[in-house]
Structures are given as structure tokens and as C-alpha cells.
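Exam revision sheet. Question 4 asks you to relate a sequence to its structure. Input first:
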Amino acid sequence: MMQAQTREHLSPEVAQAFLDGLPEKIRLGLLTYAAQVNFPVEAVIEMAIAGFLDEDAVNFPGCNPVSVDFGSKPTGLS
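Answer key, C-alpha cells:
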């Protein structure tokens, strides 16, 4: 069995798997933005997730999601 590794940044392989599961317009939006700012798409995805969890974060190492209540069920999800 393969052991999971903790990573500080999103890998290109994981980013591609993530992109493959997104609706086309969202996938194209992320790819277009990445091209416009000349960043790898995995960095753009990481920025989006980190910024959602911590408005001051631009990447996973800088993300401190202390405002997220992990004991509560998120609103709007069933």
C-alpha cells in the first residue's frame, strides 16, 4: 500500500486530476487565468483554495484556516 505524503504545494499531477473533475467553464477559467498571469495552473488552484480558507493567504504554506470551524457542518452542503 502506498503511504500518503504531506506536501507543502499542490503537485502538477494532482492539479491535473483536479482539473479533470471540474466543469469545463471552470477548468477553462483556471487555465486562462494561469496563462494570463504566467503562473503554473497548480499555483493558481492553490491560490484559490488557500484564499478561500484564509483571505490573507496566497499559497498552502501561508494558509492558516483558523476561522474554519471543523466541528460544524458547512452551510449549504447536505
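Marking note for examiners. The chain has three helices and no strands.
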